[in-house]
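user: can you give me the structure for this one chain? C-alpha coordinates are fine.
assistant: on it. calling the predictor now.
[tool input]
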Amino acid sequence: FKVWEQEGWTCVETVDTGHGVGAMVECGGMLVTGGDDGSIKLWEQGTWTCVRTLEGHTSWVRDLVVHGDWLLSGSDDNTVRVWDRTSWECLRVVQTGHTGGVSRLAVHDGKLYCGGGYDDPTIRVIDTTTWASVGVPMEGHTSSVWQLLVREGKLFSCSYDNTIKTWSTGEGRACEQTLEGHTNGVFSMTM
Protein backbone atom coordinates (compact mmCIF):
# COMPACT_ATOMS: atom_id res chain seq x y z
CA PHE A 1 0.00 0.00 0.00
CA LYS A 2 1.00 3.62 -0.37
CA VAL A 3 0.96 6.31 2.30
CA TRP A 4 -0.01 9.76 1.03
CA GLU A 5 0.62 13.13 2.66
CA GLN A 6 -2.70 14.98 2.71
CA GLU A 7 -1.21 18.38 2.06
CA GLY A 8 -0.11 18.25 -1.57
CA TRP A 9 -1.03 14.56 -1.92
CA THR A 10 2.54 13.35 -2.23
CA CYS A 11 3.34 9.66 -1.78
CA VAL A 12 5.62 9.51 1.28
CA GLU A 13 5.95 5.74 1.63
CA THR A 14 5.30 2.52 -0.25
CA VAL A 15 4.83 -0.45 2.08
CA ASP A 16 5.44 -4.00 0.87
CA THR A 17 2.76 -5.97 2.70
CA GLY A 18 3.92 -9.40 1.56
CA HIS A 19 0.41 -10.14 0.33
CA GLY A 20 -2.08 -8.76 -2.17
CA VAL A 21 -4.36 -6.45 -0.17
CA GLY A 22 -8.06 -7.28 -0.45
CA ALA A 23 -9.28 -5.26 2.55
CA MET A 24 -8.10 -2.42 4.76
CA VAL A 25 -9.44 -0.74 7.91
CA GLU A 26 -8.18 1.54 10.68
CA CYS A 27 -8.41 -0.14 14.08
CA GLY A 28 -7.26 1.37 17.36
CA GLY A 29 -4.45 3.44 15.88
CA MET A 30 -3.27 0.65 13.60
CA LEU A 31 -3.90 -0.06 9.95
CA VAL A 32 -5.17 -3.59 9.34
CA THR A 33 -4.88 -5.32 5.96
CA GLY A 34 -6.48 -8.55 4.76
CA GLY A 35 -4.65 -10.42 2.05
CA ASP A 36 -4.83 -12.87 -0.80
CA ASP A 37 -2.96 -15.42 1.33
CA GLY A 38 -5.72 -15.46 3.98
CA SER A 39 -3.65 -13.53 6.52
CA ILE A 40 -4.53 -10.33 8.35
CA LYS A 41 -1.68 -7.95 9.18
CA LEU A 42 -1.61 -5.18 11.78
CA TRP A 43 0.58 -2.18 10.88
CA GLU A 44 1.85 0.45 13.29
CA GLN A 45 0.91 3.83 11.83
CA GLY A 46 3.86 6.13 11.22
CA THR A 47 6.56 3.46 11.09
CA TRP A 48 4.43 1.15 8.93
CA THR A 49 5.95 -1.88 10.62
CA CYS A 50 3.92 -5.09 10.71
CA VAL A 51 3.46 -5.78 14.44
CA ARG A 52 1.27 -8.86 14.19
CA THR A 53 -0.07 -11.37 11.67
CA LEU A 54 -3.39 -13.11 12.28
CA GLU A 55 -3.78 -16.45 10.54
CA GLY A 56 -6.72 -18.80 10.07
CA HIS A 57 -8.50 -17.97 6.84
CA THR A 58 -7.60 -20.27 3.95
CA SER A 59 -8.35 -17.84 1.11
CA TRP A 60 -8.57 -14.11 0.27
CA VAL A 61 -9.71 -11.84 3.06
CA ARG A 62 -12.20 -9.57 1.26
CA ASP A 63 -13.53 -7.34 4.05
CA LEU A 64 -12.62 -6.16 7.55
CA VAL A 65 -15.05 -4.43 9.92
CA VAL A 66 -14.37 -3.05 13.40
CA HIS A 67 -17.35 -3.55 15.71
CA GLY A 68 -16.92 -2.77 19.41
CA ASP A 69 -14.30 -5.12 20.87
CA TRP A 70 -14.18 -7.21 17.70
CA LEU A 71 -12.48 -7.17 14.34
CA LEU A 72 -14.60 -9.14 11.86
CA SER A 73 -13.03 -10.61 8.73
CA GLY A 74 -14.88 -12.05 5.73
CA SER A 75 -13.13 -14.40 3.31
CA ASP A 76 -13.43 -16.38 0.12
CA ASP A 77 -13.22 -19.46 2.37
CA ASN A 78 -16.96 -18.81 3.09
CA THR A 79 -16.36 -17.87 6.73
CA VAL A 80 -16.31 -14.84 8.98
CA ARG A 81 -13.78 -14.80 11.79
CA VAL A 82 -14.35 -12.85 14.99
CA TRP A 83 -11.09 -11.51 16.48
CA ASP A 84 -10.68 -10.03 19.98
CA ARG A 85 -9.15 -6.55 19.57
CA THR A 86 -7.23 -6.83 22.87
CA SER A 87 -5.57 -10.25 22.57
CA TRP A 88 -6.02 -10.65 18.78
CA GLU A 89 -7.17 -14.22 19.41
CA CYS A 90 -9.74 -15.69 17.05
CA LEU A 91 -12.85 -16.05 19.21
CA ARG A 92 -15.07 -17.72 16.66
CA VAL A 93 -15.23 -19.02 13.10
CA VAL A 94 -18.70 -18.35 11.69
CA GLN A 95 -19.94 -20.62 8.92
CA THR A 96 -22.09 -18.25 6.86
CA GLY A 97 -23.63 -20.79 4.51
CA HIS A 98 -22.15 -19.03 1.47
CA THR A 99 -20.69 -21.12 -1.33
CA GLY A 100 -19.01 -18.32 -3.31
CA GLY A 101 -17.07 -16.51 -0.60
CA VAL A 102 -17.92 -13.68 1.78
CA SER A 103 -17.21 -10.46 -0.06
CA ARG A 104 -18.66 -7.76 2.25
CA LEU A 105 -19.78 -7.25 5.84
CA ALA A 106 -21.99 -4.81 7.75
CA VAL A 107 -23.23 -4.88 11.35
CA HIS A 108 -26.52 -3.38 12.50
CA ASP A 109 -28.76 -3.89 15.52
CA GLY A 110 -27.16 -7.18 16.64
CA LYS A 111 -27.08 -8.64 13.14
CA LEU A 112 -24.11 -9.31 10.87
CA TYR A 113 -24.94 -8.95 7.18
CA CYS A 114 -22.66 -10.99 4.90
CA GLY A 115 -22.63 -10.27 1.16
CA GLY A 116 -21.68 -13.12 -1.13
CA GLY A 117 -19.39 -13.50 -4.12
CA TYR A 118 -19.95 -14.50 -7.75
CA ASP A 119 -21.28 -18.02 -7.23
CA ASP A 120 -23.60 -17.06 -4.36
CA PRO A 121 -24.55 -13.34 -4.47
CA THR A 122 -26.99 -13.61 -1.57
CA ILE A 123 -26.87 -11.61 1.64
CA ARG A 124 -26.89 -13.82 4.71
CA VAL A 125 -27.80 -12.64 8.20
CA ILE A 126 -26.04 -13.85 11.36
CA ASP A 127 -27.19 -13.07 14.91
CA THR A 128 -24.17 -11.66 16.79
CA THR A 129 -25.40 -13.08 20.11
CA THR A 130 -25.73 -16.72 19.05
CA TRP A 131 -23.70 -16.55 15.80
CA ALA A 132 -26.46 -18.57 14.14
CA SER A 133 -28.06 -17.83 10.77
CA VAL A 134 -31.27 -15.85 10.91
CA GLY A 135 -34.02 -16.48 8.36
CA VAL A 136 -33.45 -17.26 4.72
CA PRO A 137 -30.77 -15.67 2.52
CA MET A 138 -31.70 -12.29 1.02
CA GLU A 139 -31.86 -12.92 -2.73
CA GLY A 140 -31.94 -10.47 -5.61
CA HIS A 141 -28.43 -9.73 -6.86
CA THR A 142 -27.17 -11.80 -9.77
CA SER A 143 -23.46 -11.17 -9.24
CA SER A 144 -21.02 -10.34 -6.40
CA VAL A 145 -22.09 -7.98 -3.66
CA TRP A 146 -19.37 -5.29 -3.52
CA GLN A 147 -20.51 -3.16 -0.60
CA LEU A 148 -23.04 -3.11 2.23
CA LEU A 149 -24.12 0.00 4.15
CA VAL A 150 -26.77 0.51 6.80
CA ARG A 151 -28.46 3.91 7.08
CA GLU A 152 -31.61 4.84 8.95
CA GLY A 153 -32.54 1.20 9.53
CA LYS A 154 -32.19 0.20 5.87
CA LEU A 155 -29.52 -2.01 4.30
CA PHE A 156 -28.05 -0.85 0.99
CA SER A 157 -26.13 -3.22 -1.27
CA CYS A 158 -24.30 -2.61 -4.52
CA SER A 159 -23.22 -5.27 -6.93
CA TYR A 160 -21.30 -6.22 -10.04
CA ASP A 161 -24.78 -6.78 -11.56
CA ASN A 162 -24.97 -2.97 -12.15
CA THR A 163 -27.56 -2.35 -9.41
CA ILE A 164 -27.99 -0.90 -5.94
CA LYS A 165 -30.69 -2.44 -3.75
CA THR A 166 -32.39 -1.23 -0.58
CA TRP A 167 -33.55 -3.81 1.95
CA SER A 168 -35.67 -3.80 5.08
CA THR A 169 -33.71 -4.84 8.18
CA GLY A 170 -36.94 -5.94 9.87
CA GLU A 171 -38.31 -9.47 10.09
CA GLY A 172 -38.93 -10.08 6.38
CA ARG A 173 -35.73 -8.40 5.16
CA ALA A 174 -37.36 -7.83 1.79
CA CYS A 175 -35.80 -5.93 -1.10
CA GLU A 176 -37.70 -2.64 -1.15
CA GLN A 177 -36.17 -1.02 -4.21
CA THR A 178 -33.71 -1.71 -7.01
CA LEU A 179 -31.82 1.25 -8.46
CA GLU A 180 -30.85 0.60 -12.06
CA GLY A 181 -29.09 2.65 -14.71
CA HIS A 182 -25.41 1.87 -14.29
CA THR A 183 -23.83 0.29 -17.35
CA ASN A 184 -21.15 -1.52 -15.36
CA GLY A 185 -20.74 -3.05 -11.93
CA VAL A 186 -21.31 -0.82 -8.90
CA PHE A 187 -18.27 -1.31 -6.68
CA SER A 188 -18.80 1.42 -4.10
CA MET A 189 -21.38 3.84 -2.73
CA THR A 190 -21.58 6.47 -0.02
CA MET A 191 -24.33 8.40 1.72
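assistant: here you go. The first strand starts at residue 2 and ends at 5. The chain has no helices and 17 strands.
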